[in-house]
Amino acid sequence: MGLFVDSQSQSRCRDIVLVSFLSFALLLIFAPPAIADSNLGNGAECRTNNDCRSRACFPYPDQRNYCRARDMGCADPGSDGVPFDYTANVDGHTWVCREGASWQPSDKLANGDHCNGDSECASNRCYPNPDGDRYCLAKPLDCTDSRMNGVSSGYTMQILNKSWTCIRGTGWGPAQFSEFSDGVGRHRDCSRSECNPQDGSCNARQKLKTANCERQKAIEIELAIPVSLAIAQVRDAAERAGVYPIPDHIRTRLEQYFTPSTLNKARYRVGTAGDSEMLRFAFEWLRTSAFVMGHVIIFRDEHDARNNIRLWTHELEHVNKYDILGIDGFAQRWMQPDKRGDYDEDKATIEGAATSRAIYVCSHISC
Fold first, then answer.
1. Full-prediction pTM beyond 0.70?
2. DSSP 12-45
């Protein structure tokens, strides 16, 4: 059995198909672009609050909207958002994130721009930077940084080949990798503080406190004498066996992180083959990849001496501390477990200070 369709019906069918196709094509061309994900993360472009996981879709000066974290002041492409008083430079114009108003245009300088005085900045804060210039700084932050809103207290960075730390209430200061708050042994301060004339018992208390301090100081000095002698003997044995300056390729990578004095003073050698019994005993006793005796770093193997930047950084910090404390002062602090420390980042200890320095350096160069 056959199916017969006349030519007029065929023509109508073709017209219907053509109209349907054209309608679909026009829909594709002129329909607004769809945002596929209705659960967008912060910083993603959006149209309505319902598009965002945070249910917060806010405008940005580029005429688009972006999802913003609920605890932030204004939207920012590609991030959770920014706090109030942050600035943005969009198409050469400064915008400020204002409470209750989102982004607002400003005729003043953006944070991170070079400035000469507070009145030039949208944040009304023009602060100094270690590079010798001044930059506008966002109100919630503590220190300037060119081309950005600024940084918070504790942030450390390299500026002009030197390490600097952001300190709240102070601004940028030279980075400190050790915080030895009290002296040990010969560095212990036993001086007496002044008494209030109206306090009749003050002098007696001060005398007792000073006597106890001097007694503790003498004990710490006496306890460390054998260690001081051993350090000097191992150093001398290493020098007799042969020591060398820091390899050039190591020094080149570390010269912006240590003073020339430390780098010039440091010497090293590898292993104990043919060395004195003192050196062999030191390796057996310490059981480390390297150790420092005064200004001499002694590595267990050649590979570390030629390649291990992290280890070099750690040991050079010890060389620096020997220079500051002296062999006897270093030994006196080393003999106190709470002052010697472990391989954490406690800057109040010898090992913690060295670890802190190594972590910082290796965050800036490949170790």
1. no
2. HHHHHHHHHHHHHHHHHHHSPPP-S-SSBPTTSE
